[in-house]
Amino acid sequence: MAGPPEESAPPVRPNGGDGAWAQQLLDHLRPAGRDLGRLVAWLARSTGAIVCLLDAHGRLLAGEPLPLDTTVVADVCTGRVAAAALEDGVRHVRLVGIRHPGPGPAAGAVLALARPAPFDRHTAEILNHTAGVLELLLRERELADSGRRLRRATADLRLAILQLLMVEDTVSARRVAAGLWPGLLEEDTARVYVVETTAAERDRLADACVDATGGRALVVRCPAMDGHVIVVGPSSEVGERLRSLVSGRPGTFLGGSPRQRLALTATAYGQAVTALAVAHFRPERSAVYAARTRPAQLMDPAGLRAWAGAVLRPLDALPHHVRAELLATTGLGLEFTAVSAAKVLGVSRNTVRARMDRVAGLLGADFSRLAVRAVAHVALNTEAAHGPYDPGGPAAGPADRGGLAELFGTRALRAWAEGLLGRLDEDGRDLRGTLRAWLAADAHAERAAQSLGVHAQTVRERVRSAEPVLERRLTAGGTDLYETVLAHLVVGELPVPELGTTKRDQPDSPVHG
Question: Could you give the CA distance from residue 350 to residue 174 in angstroms, rounded to a whole number?
Fold first, then answer.
């Protein structure tokens, strides 16, 4: 029950005399002293009481648990009463509502004190002022929590937009982006950049990228690589600003793609990752995907498109969005790993593998074979660059070995392949023979070692030694590895794989999700 005012009892003085408590209380508002636990502990010492701070749901925020009348606590929480005083013959209890920053009378927290001695005017003054400071600290914490939730929601939204772009759903990506970043994706083309730092510095780097690009780019914390920040920049200024940012941050690297259509964001992302590897060897710590000669550029354009159209023809019976989703997932899965592709797309790795298995079944392709993956990679990239080939007409080019061998038979392509692999001939460790065996074994060092009669570690070391000679990443997979495979296919050092020889799945079997 509520007791009468108790003013006759001697006051409890905090350490330092009558005026010191106010300064001590103000110290808890300094940036280094803003801690609920410390403030509640100070209040307990200053008043000689047991103190607890409860949230509006009765959960302990700071201090020591106290047995309290739940009805009275509920009255204070709901704002029916602002404060309450109780006395049970053993202890004196005070409860004070800490106002919630939102509208209405409800309290955001309840401050409760219990002690054997009555509460005099001096102690009540300390209590009331402390409640005001607690209100400020709780409001600051709520604002900080709201800020974190907003930043997290914004980051999730940016990632969702990127994932839509990765599966070529540019319409939905623009619709989602329009609410927060009007005009960001209005252009049909953009460049993709990947900025790399340590995992510990990644959040600060992402914030710096947002500030540097000034709302002119989509900045996403890469879900697959802890140290990567992905930036999609339609504006030509974005690259300049990112290069300036990287130059002032030691240990930071930048890789960029050439300008690509938004529907080719996944392709541009792979190009940016490739450029990032080059940036590690440059003094400026930045690089743009090199416009070096690609094997596909040395094939007959019409024949290549016809062949790719025939290879991908079994997918044409699928609904457009399903077909695009399957091809986008497969493209990322071939370029990276299934786990990394899953993180980028925001799906499970089992979903990625199921989609790739679906495509493999439709194409009659065994993706466990490296050469098959390399050839399928050519077909997917050809469609990505030129669009589907006459999807309503009859198959315009054979997808068998003869058609592919004919594409590989151009003089320019053979000269490219021989020039690339010829770089390995000058090394006395038989890098060329080891690399050929490793590729024939589908990049398994142990199997290659058995065929060569050497240790598996020897195979790995020679493959790594071949990378700087060829100026291509081999052990990381992706485009560089597939181009090296194609060179071996062109010169006849590996057999040209056949597509369409395995049993094809039914085109309407759903695996997307």
Answer: 28
Q: Do strands 60-63 and 189-196 pair parallel, antiparallel, or not at all (unpaired)?
A: unpaired
In this predicted model, which residue has the larger pLDDT, 337 or 241?
Answer: 241
pLDDT of residue 507: 35
Q: What is the pLDDT, as a whole number, of residue 19?
A: 61
Cβ neighbour number for residue 500 with a 10 Å cutoff: 16
**pLDDT in the model for residue 198:** 94
Query: Is-above-0.85 flag for pTM?
Result: no
Query: Beta-carbon neighbour count of residue 372 at 10 Å?
Result: 21
Residue 494 has what pLDDT?
Answer: 93
Alpha helices in 387-455 (DSSP H): 401-407, 411-422, 431-440, 445-452
* Cα–Cα dist 287/292, whole Å: 13
Phi, psi at 193, each rounded to 5°: -120, 150
d(CA 256, CA 133): 50
- CA separation for the pair 434, 451 (Å, rounded): 10
Closest C-alpha to 112, from 60, 36, 51: 51
Cβ atoms of 219 and 210 within 8 Å: the answer is yes
CB-based contact 14:20 (threshold 8 Å):
yes
Q: Are 258 and 291 within 8 A, CB to CB?
A: yes
Taking the C-alpha atoms of residue 309 and residue 302, their distance in angstroms, rounded to an integer, is: 11
Residue 394 has pLDDT above 50, yes or no: no
Vertex 509, ends 504 and 513: CA angle to 5°? 125
Percent of the chain at pLDDT above 90?
A: 37
Q: Is the pLDDT of residue 395 over 50?
A: no
- Residue 494 CA, distance from chain mean position: 38
